Amino acid sequence: MTPQEAWTGCKPRVDHFRIFGCLAHVHVPNQKRIKLDDKSKTHIFLGVRKESKAYKLFDPITKKITISRDVKFEENACWKWEQRKGEVKSDVLDWEDKNSDANKELELEEDSDSNNASNTISQTGGDSSATSSGGSKPNSPTGRSRRAPAWMSEYTTGEGLLEEEEEAMMMITEEDPVTYNEAAKEKKWRDAMAKEIDSIEKNGTRGLTTLSSGVKAIGVKWVFKTKLNEHGNEEKYKARLVAKGYAQQYGIDYTEVFAPVARLDTIRLILATATQNKWEVYQLDVKSAFL
After folding, report:
1. Listing from the earlier edge strand, what are the strands of the sheet with 64-68?
2. Burial of 43 (0-12, 13-18, 19+ CB in 10 A)
3. Are 65 and 57 in contact (CB under 8 A)?
4. H helix intervals, the chain
5. How far, CA to CA in Å, does 30 sit from each of 35, 109, 276?
């Protein structure tokens, strides 16, 4: 029995432990991957990050530290440091070859696109507004036909809307105030800010203290949001007083990070249990739940 289990009664989990210095293959997301690149990069395992449940890894080629949770470990293998120079040289050569091949493919694609665009212009009598048969955008000033990427087909953009439709969308969307001066002009937002201050005082989350020498206080700002009901009508106005967390530094202003949110697995389990037992599920909003 460990001291933590004897004190808390809960057995600590160690399934995330890995052998120090073993090889770790980090997944490279699509947006950071170049053509012909591998889906993972080999790193060296250094440990677990203190402020989050992520692994700290070292890239021996670029000499950089990487933080990631999407990692596959090879605990029986380690980096061959005596062959590091040769491996780095080969990796660099492979990387250059891949980039050269990718650049050649891009040049071929550009040449084919420019040829198609020139053929289209010649057939339409040089009209610059002509488009290709695949629904591409008008030709650019350089004469190259611009096509929307394939992943854009899953999204709806505002391109192609009539002026009347754009004006209607602008009228439907009502923006909430951004600054305190804008919100202070309306009574509904002043009442919302008063309720927020009352909640802070009631929960005892605010108190006066003396700053140490050389320490600068972190500022706060108001965030305003209009809450809508299930019919899309305005239900209430919420004002939150939040700290400017981006001004904090790890190890100085904070040492741990918490995310007090419900897991999606828990919500699915509750809904499945309610469906099986034919229970009624109610949705409610708890005022100042975070505080």
Report:
1. 64-68, 55-59, 40-48, 22-27, 71-78
2. buried
3. yes
4. 3-8, 84-123, 163-172, 180-183, 187-203, 264-276
5. 10, 20, 40
pLDDT digits (tens, 9 = 90+) for 125-141: 444 444 444 444 445 55
Alpha-carbon distance 101 to 107, whole Å?
Answer: 10
Question: 206: closest CA among 196, 215, 216, 214?
Answer: 196
235-250 pLDDT tens trace: 888 999 988 888 888 8
Asked if 153 contacts 134 with a C-beta cutoff of 8 angstroms, the reply is no
Encoding tokens for residue 149? 């990427």
User: pTM of the prediction?
Assistant: 0.42
DSSP code at position 286: -
Q: How far apart are CA 282 and CA 119, in angstroms?
A: 62
CA distance 80 to 170: 61
- The full DSSP string for 111-134 is HHHHHHHHHHHHHTTS-TT---TT
